[in-house]
Each structure stands twice: as structure tokens, then as C-alpha cells.
Design brief:
The protein is mostly helical. It has a four-stranded mixed sheet with strand order 2-1-3-4, covered by helices on one side. α10 runs antiparallel to α12, α10 packs parallel to α13 and α13 packs parallel to α17. The longest helix has 30 residues. The radius of gyration is 30 Å and the shape is elongated.
């Protein structure tokens, strides 16, 4: 009954303060993310820029087939992937005799020379396009060769239709839709949404501690402890309160970004729910151990110090990828909020449970350890 009553009190409290909740966990993070992402827009390049592969084509055959191959990269679908330019990282060389070799079913290889090391995946994408083009062209040429009764004009017309179909099909293949997705990177706004969540986490911890201290000051704690309730049960009730509060605030935060499509769009609801639940467990256990071991003033100070540590070393205000200092990077890896932010980043990038499971396990393990230490402290003695 106490648990049910506590949940009702929490929900009513959040509803009564909905303006403050929206301001703190929706409007404020959106504004901050907008400002910070604008400052870092050159650091986190847009997806479309990252995905484009700069290529140049050297045609040593100068045949109709080689011309059509070059035109392939001017198709709308492949223009979103490739950028044909003299300042390229990859050089595609069409060998002399390419067309005649295809007609006579002889081996003819289009070479891909890497002028500048960028990505192994980029080279595989280029070779995949070439392989699909060559395979489709060979098959269709064999078919057309067998049509001996056709006039030269009809054959030429058929050949052009075949080439157009190959180009059309290639532009819609999994090269663009699947392989390129593996190259996806976070936009500046998406990165900030993941990083800013950890700031919200510490804000929730501070809110939980402040609420607990307020209950102590107005005598609510003493009244509850005067009832047939052990300190152990009372502590668990507080931890439950912290957990539910964290769930509500985190959902408000995520929806604030997801509804307008600024971040977390297209991400699995189940994956996001798993992160929010594990995150809430971590918040509840962290808040619990702080109120178990520290008094009012010290508890708030500890929470603020943890928050400032993450602000400095968590990558939200200072992009870690631009820092070369080994000491800074070492401390950054141990930053208390990076587990959570990395879970969100991986969830946005890969949308796969396997990529976030490691972070979820860490959050659960840390939560269990913190909760166990808190229970030991409660049994040894706890400040009323």
C-alpha cells in the first residue's frame, strides 16, 4: 500500500509542477543543445558530407561502354554517394580494350587506386559498384549477342535500354541503403542530445537529494519513521521514489528531442526504454548512496562535484576528439556520465541492442554495487 501511495504522490507532484519539468528537462536542454551544436558544427560533420566518396575516373578505352560506366556516377542515387572530382582520394582506371574484352567474355579489370588513405569501407563500396556493373553488363551483352536477327539500329537501341536499366537498378541497390548506413556519423545536434542527457542525470540526482532534504526539514521523514516502518524499508521507498522520478524526467527529455525529429528519430523504442530503465537504476542507486553516507550539505556538494567533473571531462562542452592531452583523455574515460552518453550515441548510430548491451550491463552492475553499499551503511547506522 505504501508503494502504491508513494507512486501516486510522485505522479501528482510531477503533474502539479509540469511547467518546471518542461522548462528544466525539455526547453532548457533543447536551447543548450542548439547553442553548443552550432559551436561544434564543424567538428561533427553532417552525414551527407561524410558519406560522399571523392573519386576521379581515368578512361583508357574511350569506348561507348566506358563512357556509360562514367555516366553511371552521374545518376541521382549514386551522386549522393560519390563526388567525381580531380581532387580525389580514389582513382578509377578503365583499361584499354575494356569493351571488347566484355563482348568476347575475356577478363578485364577496372582498377581502383587509393591516392589518399581514408576508409577501407570506401574502397569496398567502389569495388562493389564496379563488380555489379560488370556482372550486369556481361550478362546483358551475352543475351543481346544471341539476338542475331536484330538490325543494327535495334541492337543499338536495346543496348542503350540495357545500360539505362543497369544504371537505374544500381542507384537503388543496397550500396546506398545499407553499406552507407554503416558509415553514419552523429550530427552535432545528435551528439549534444546524448551528451546533454548526462547533465540532466546529475540534475535529477540533485533534485532527488533536494527533495529528500526537504522532507527531512519539514518533518515528513520523522513522521514516517514513527510508523511501523524500518529504516531499511524507508530507504527502499526513497530509492523507489528516485527511480520513478528519473524515469519520468528522462522520458520528457527524450520526447522533447524525438517529437520534432531533432534526435533519437528512427531509434528502436525498446532499445531506448532499456537505456532509460538502466539509467534510472543508476540514478536511484547513486542518489541512494549519497543520502546514506552524507548529510544534507555534504550530499549536495558531492553531487555538484560529480556534475562539474562530467561537464569538464565528459565531452559536452569540450569536444574530446579534438584533445591530444593523455591525462585529459584518461580522466575523460573515467567520467561518471560517459557510460550513459556512449549508450545513447551507440543507440542512435547503430540502433542495435548488441551495441548498447555492454553499457547496460555496466550500469546495472554499478547500480547493484552502489545499492549494496548503501544497505550496509543503513544497517550500520543512518542519520534520521
Amino acid at each position: 500500500m505504501r508503494v502504491k501511495a508513494t507512486i501516486k504522490v510522485i505522479v501528482k507532484g510531477v503533474i502539479s509542477q509540469w511547467k518546471q519539468v518542461l522548462l528544466m528537462f525539455a526547453i532548457f536542454p533543447l536551447i543548450m543543445s542548439l547553442i553548443m551544436s552550432n559551436f561544434q558544427k564543424d567538428v561533427f560533420r553532417p552525414e551527407v558530407t561524410i558519406n560522399k566518396i571523392n573519386i576521379s575516373i581515368v578512361d583508357k578505352d574511350n569506348s561507348k561502354t566506358s563512357y556509360n560506366f562514367k555516366e553511371l556516377f552521374n545518376e541521382k542515387g549514386l551522386r549522393e554517394i560519390f563526388n567525381v572530382t580531380s581532387k580525389s582520394e580514389y582513382e578509377i582506371v578503365i583499361p584499354k580494350g575494356y569493351e571488347s574484352n566484355l563482348i568476347n567474355r575475356k577478363e578485364s579489370t577496372i582498377e581502383v587506386n587509393e591516392k589518399k588513405r581514408v576508409s577501407r569501407n570506401n574502397e569496398l563500396i567502389i569495388k562493389s559498384v564496379i563488380e555489379q556493373y560488370g556482372k550486369s553488363l556481361t550478362e546483358t551483352m551475352i543475351i543481346s549477342k544471341k539476338i542475331k536477327d536484330m538490325s543494327i539500329e535495334d541492337k543499338d537501341k536495346l543496348f542503350n535500354e540495357i545500360i539505362n536499366n543497369i544504371n537505374k537498378n544500381l542507384s537503388k541497390t543496397s550500396i546506398k541503403e545499407n553499406i552507407i548506413q554503416g558509415q553514419r556519423v552523429l550530427t552535432a545536434f545528435e551528439n549534444q542530445s546524448a551528451t546533454m542527457m548526462t547533465l540532466m542525470v546529475f540534475s535529477i540526482i540533485l533534485s532527488c537529494i533536494a527533495g529528500y532534504n526537504m522532507d527531512k526539514e519539514n518533518g515528513s521523514n520523522k513522521r514516517l519513521l514513527s510508523t511501523p516502518m524500518t529504516k531499511y524499508n524507508f530507504f527502499n521507498l526513497d530509492v523507489l521514489l528516485f527511480f520513478i522520478t528519473s524515469l519520468i524526467y528522462a522520458l520528457v527529455y527524450i520526447l522533447a528531442f524525438r517529437i520534432p525529429g531533432l534526435a533519437f528519430k528512427g531509434v528502436s523504442v525498446l532499445n531506448m526504454t532499456a537505456i532509460v530503465i538502466c539509467q534510472s537504476l543508476l540514478i536511484a542507486s547513486t542518489s541512494g548512496i549519497i543520502i546514506a553516507f552524507f548529510g544534507k550539505k555534504t550530499a549536495t556538494t558531492v553531487a555538484i562535484l560529480l556534475m562539474y567533473t562530467h561537464i569538464i571531462f565528459g565531452g559536452g562542452f569540450i569536444p574530446v576528439k579534438d584533445i591530444d592531452n593523455k591525462v585529459f583523455l584518461t580522466i575523460s574515460k573515467c567520467s561518471p556520465g560517459n557510460i550513459i552518453s556512449e549508450a545513447y550515441r551507440n543507440c542512435i548510430l547503430f540502433n542495435s541492442f548488441n551495441t548498447i548491451s555492454r553499457y547496460l550491463i555496466i550500469m546495472i552492475v554499478v547500480s547493484v554495487i552502489l545499492y549494496s553499499l548503501s544497505i550496509l551503511k543503513i544497517k550500520m547506522g543512518w542519520e534520521d
